[in-house]
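This week, work through this protein record:
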Amino acid sequence: MKTSKKEIIIVAIAIIVQTLIFIVVGMNKAYIHMDEGFSMGLTNYDKIKIQMNDDFYDTWHTKDYYEDYLIINEDEKFDFSPVYINQKNDVHPPLYYFLLRVAMSFHVGRFSMWSGIILNMIIYAGITLFMYLIIKKLLEDTENVLEKSIVLAVFSSITIASLTNLVYIRMYALSTLNIVITAYLHMRLYEIKEENYKLLTAIGLSALVGSLTHYYYLFYLVVLFIMFTIKYLKEKRYKEFGKYFAALAVAGILSILIFPFSIQHMFFGYRGQGALSNLSNIMTAFKGIVTYLFIMNRYGFNNILFFVLVSMIVIVIYKRMRGIEIFSGRNRYVKYMLLPSFFYFLLVSISSPWKTLRYVLPICGLSFILVFYYLYVLLKNIVSKKALNRIFAIIFIVMFIMPMWLHIPIQELYTDRAEIVEKLSNELNLPTIYAMRSNGNRFLDDIYLFSKIDESYIARDIEYTKENVQKIFENKDISKGIIVFINTQQNNKEILENICEATNLEKWKHLKRLNACDVYYVK
């Protein structure tokens, strides 16, 4: 079908409006999660963690020492080797880090969160475009399909989950794009009955890119592959199946040739072993599924998923009682989105190392449009078109009021950290000690803050005796006080009392609880 000028203009305007919303959201990002610190460090540093440096602990450092982990220096801008080497030694494939490295190259020598956010904005333009194309196929027989498709596509990109995906400087936005492209290309493949080498090449490339972005992408692809294998064999289209299989096989071989360490990561690394262990534990699996259902409700649907699902059940019961056809004119493509998304959700719920939003981000958008597609199909033969539009308008209004009403935060935005960053960068930029218990070492959660503090000292597993503390602060001007970070599972009061006694400072004030530590001003 030929794309009209009107369609191009509407989609372009929608993406521009979406991008303006993203810019406003991005301006409010005040801090980074440790994994975002990893993202930046893994693109340029000569080690996975800055803590691996021989001189990291028990030495005073300036803020430049920590910022070096987060930035590309002038003499490093053409050296892409850390991208590959660090991923070999870590647990993820390298493609996202390569793209982030390119984005970071636009501000050599200085740190900016905008490198990752702008990269994700560009990715999300692609996500919304392919979401639109997918929805247009789902609603192909409805009136005003263009307008309905773009509205639903944009709404799917500004849920709390999607906004989190935008500001979280990790590979999940790219993985989302890989999945929606793969879903759309398979929809196209479904409707084509003759050989199409361009489409098969595109499917192979999407599989290659997806597998080099995140291993969970393969959960989605494998289910689609099984569905199309069954379809081709059932219809005795062996030649077409052979070419489809070849396209994916070539993609798999190329992926392994480009990054052979993926085999080690998936099957023999600690993440892969942990995932396989979880898959065999029934109770762990059940808890994971329930946990992720609540996560999807809260962030993927702004807390209205369960209400919508209950409403759909009520509609089904009503239709059965009245003898009305339950699904009127169900779309031929929908199962090729539904089943892969469903099994992706199940497998991630069971196998993910932590039960957190990030792992289901790649299917939040597809889940969103699937739920509202089925609600639309259930309602369309029992209410008028005007009533149907009003129902959806009310649902979407309620949906986007919910985060403000229930104070549902955009994850990884950390607006509550803006004050502590400003305070320690300026007003209280004092000699800082991090009382580090190494068993709870999540220093990268706070590396951004340390890159703002003029001088700091990471004290690992020491006793806070008068002698030790005085030695640390020897020749330091502490007349205006000091800042003390204390990480988890320590006796904070005892440490602070010992520091006060050794430094002749009198009292302390708790400034902020961060992800992995408490921050105090001792004066």
